[in-house]
């Protein structure tokens, strides 16, 4: 992981001898809008683990998160699919509802794996979120969501999710045919990982619990700042 002399951006490889976050550190997990450089999703998270092999973070219940909205305030997923990606958008802030989420990402991989539990900590499922490999900077990590996802269940069965959104995003011009094929290839690679029960599925993260002393991270006023224009 190397830092530019004039910015606080760093690349997605966390190698020995470079800065890492400590457990309990608070960072931002952000997504750019598709076909734009503007951040439209921002989740303050707490670092669980940051090593050369894995970044693990916790999204605590009640965390104030930035979410995309249609310009008239309609939640994106309430808009019919045919016009979901063509109407003007803005962003809003609302608390993370339900239980928290543990996010796991390996350097350079085009997906992250999320773990979900019920309120009584009964494990529900993993969720493979296909996305750009995380780009690290001093304040957190940035990516771009690729619409297509995979749900993975405790019995090791799996299923594709959001294939309709993936198709509609291509039709709306948010993803080229070449990019879509790369996303499909990443999905097939993720399925191979699932079927071989490779990392991180066999690592026992289902038994993990957050430190009760961790405060809920706050959303900073400059959550959408551009790392490329911020000096270290």
Short description:
By secondary structure, the chain is an alpha+beta fold.
- Determine the fraction of residues in helical runs and give it as a percent range: 10-25%
- The proportion of strand residues reads 25-35%
Number of helical stretches of at least 4 residues? 3
**Major sheet summary line:** 7 strands, mixed, barrel
Keywords: Hydrolase
Protein name: DUF402 domain-containing protein
InterPro entries: DUF402, FomD-like_sf, Ntdp-like
Domain DUF402: 78-198
Give a written overview of the molecule.
Helices cover 14% and strands 34% of the residues. It contains three helices and eleven strands. A seven-stranded mixed β-barrel has the order 1-2-3-6-7-8-10. A two-stranded antiparallel sheet has the order 4-5. It is globular and about 40 Å long. The two termini are 14 Å apart. Mean pLDDT is 91; it is low at 1-18. Residues 78-198 form the DUF402 domain. Residues 1-21 are annotated as: Disordered. It comes from Streptomyces telluris. This is DUF402 domain-containing protein.
């Amino acid at each position: 992981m190397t830092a530019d002399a004039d910015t606080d951006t760093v690349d997605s490889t966390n190698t020995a001898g470079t800065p890492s976050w400590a457990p309990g550190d608070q960072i931002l997990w952000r997504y750019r809008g598709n076909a734009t450089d503007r951040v439209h999703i921002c989740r303050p998270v707490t670092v669980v683990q940051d090593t050369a092999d894995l970044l693990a973070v916790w999204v605590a219940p009640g965390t104030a998160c930035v979410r995309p909205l249609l310009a008239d305030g309609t939640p994106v997923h309430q808009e019919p699919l045919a016009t979901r990606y063509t109407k003007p958008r803005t962003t809003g802030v609302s608390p993370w509802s339900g239980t928290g989420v543990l996010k796991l990402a390996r350097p350079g991989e085009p997906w992250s794996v999320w773990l979900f539990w019920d309120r009584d900590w009964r494990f529900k499922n993993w969720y493979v979120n296909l996305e750009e490999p995380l780009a690290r900077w001093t304040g957190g990590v940035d990516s771009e969501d690729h619409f297509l996802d995979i749900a993975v269940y405790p019995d090791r069965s799996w299923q594709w999710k959001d294939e309709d959104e993936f198709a509609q995003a291509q039709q709306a011009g948010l993803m080229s045919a070449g990019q879509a094929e790369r996303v499909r290839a990443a999905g097939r690679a993720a399925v191979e990982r699932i079927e071989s029960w490779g990392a991180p599925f066999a690592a026992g993260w289902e038994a993990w619990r957050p430190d009760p002393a961790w405060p809920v991270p706050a959303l900073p006023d400059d959550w959408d700042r551009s790392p490329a224009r911020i000096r270290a």
